[in-house]
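Before relying on records like the one below, remember that each one covers exactly one chain. Contacts with other chains, cofactors or solvent are not represented anywhere in the record.
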Amino acid sequence: MSDDQALGITESKEYNTGEWYAEVVQKAGLANYGPDGMSGFIITRPRGYALWEGIQNYLDGQFKATDVQNAYFPLFIPESYLEREKDIVEGFDPEVAWVTHGGNQELEERLAVRPTSESIIAPYMAQWVRSHRDLPLRVNQWCSVVRWEATDTKPFFRTKEFLWQEGHTAHETEEEAYEETMTRLGQYRSLYEDVLAMPVMRGKKPEHDKFPGADTTTTVEALMPDGKSVQAGTSHYLGTSFAAAFDLTYSDEDEEELPAHTTSWGLSWRSLGALIMTHSDDQGLVVPPTIAPEQVVIVPIYQEDTEEKVLDYAEDLREELAEAGVRVKLDDRDERNPGFKFNEWELKGVPVRFEIGPNEVDDDEVTVVHRPDGEQAVESRSDVVDAVEDHFDEVYAKLYARAEENLTENVRDAEDRAGILGTIGQHGGYVRAPWCGKEECETEIKETISAEIVMVPFEDDEERHHPDVADGCTCAICDDEATETAFFAKSY
């Protein structure tokens, strides 16, 4: 461990969130910034990648259980392919990185470094589909994409290259495709709520903020402790526009040729940024046991005359936990004292610590300490393997409850422009307001306070709608009739 890590976290999450976040990411061993001259890129360290693997493994299992197969498509997309769907070109053009030369030879056609893959995947899906018997078709790829954003680097939140998965499907009907869209959105919600201990809200993006070329973009949104929202995953019903652009058609039972209804859906390592931001504290990284690279660290505490019996006891415990499937680490380094180890593993976010000293050995017990609140318990050695799952559940429940409280307390209503601006300016969080559906009303808020509409609740989600919309109220920004509920927030 470096001297910088040994110093621990020096910034405050509450008062200096950006610098605190960057410090946690680096000192917890998750990532480093890229080389000089490569602003916007990061080096993902093994510990950070292990967290991404945890997300990947969960989602990959969910996808495969619902008939999705993994594939891989080229990193480079010919410009002519990209141009076949005009909305893709217009939507991503400012962020596309282009390859113009191969070695010293100028290419006949520019190649886009994949900003998203609809325009390279759809043509091949079109080759694989002939009749209704070939549908539904579902493929997913785990890959990286590049979007050349001119923003400050924030590891996992804002980088020019990032890791994600993107799923693409084709269906006979709109109903089937929309059901697919909602299935994937539900799987994203499950990831956050059942694995990452983070409650999220589901809804749609407003018409002007849809994925380029999509009919409907659905989203899960997560609220960070600093009051900003994270677009945590999106699932798009694309209608038939991509099918028409790339000749993705099928013959139905009557031999009539029809365009397929398509979807795409993706979740990136922005989920890691949201995880880190939500749970971590001024001591360092905090992650739930469900995804922690090490769920338990065992720290032996001994003097010279008790070293052998304490280490033997600790090693036996490690072996038993490992055999039970627990991700466990025995920290038996003799060049570091227990206090240093406690601080180091707290910084790295291990959710449960076992402390073993001569008293625990003599009493046949284990002292259990939770991260992040330091709550302690003593367990019988004979019961500890069974009890550890209960401790995992307790830690998870604490993290979820804290995140849920943050969300619940930070959804506020506003009826007019002053209410939206004042509430976001004073409190942050989400402001729920009646909205007429016009982009210019959002623009007025965005230009004034850099907040935007992050979500419109689904029609059947009565709990999320502003209570006045159903009564025919006016838009909070203009005098037109309100037709929807909008959630305004600043966002990452």
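The CA atoms of residues 193 and 199 lie 5 Å apart.
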